[in-house]
Amino acid sequence: MSPEANDQGPNDPRAGGGAGGPDPGTTGAGTGTGTDTASGRAPGPGFWNTSRVIAALISVLVLVFIFQNTRTTKVHLLIPEVRLPLWVVLLGTAILGMLAGMFWSHHRRKRRARR
Fold this sequence. Notes:
This protein has 115 residues and is mainly alpha-helical. The protein has a domain at 75-115. The protein is 42% helix and 7% strand. It has helices at 50-68, 86-114, and strands spanning 72-75, 82-85. It has a two-stranded antiparallel sheet with strand order 1-2. α1 (50-68) runs antiparallel to α2 (86-114). This is DUF1049 domain-containing protein. The chain crosses the membrane at residues 47-67, 87-105. InterPro entries: LapA_dom. Residues 68-115 form the Lipopolysaccharide assembly protein A domain.
C-alpha cells in the first residue's frame, strides 16, 4: 500500500469519520485507547477503586448471609409481632442501613460545602 492511499483526512467518509467525527462504534483514529461505546469513556482502573471493591465484597457477603438464613422468625418493632422469613428481615435491615449511610454521607457533604 502506498503512502498516498492512506492519507485520508478526518472528514473523509472512508476513514470512518465524516463531518461529525469518528463513528460511535470506533475507538478513535489509531490511538489504540479503546473507548466504551455506550458512555464514550475509556475503560480503566478508575471505576474499581479500593472503596468500590470493598463495597462490592461486603455486598456479596451480605447477600450470601441473607440467602443462607431462610427460616421464619418473629419480629417485634412498634407492632406486636410479625412472622417473616429471616432473609426478608435481613435484606430489609441491609437496605435501611444503606439508605441511612447514603443520607448521612449526603448530609455531611452538604455541610462541608457550606463551610
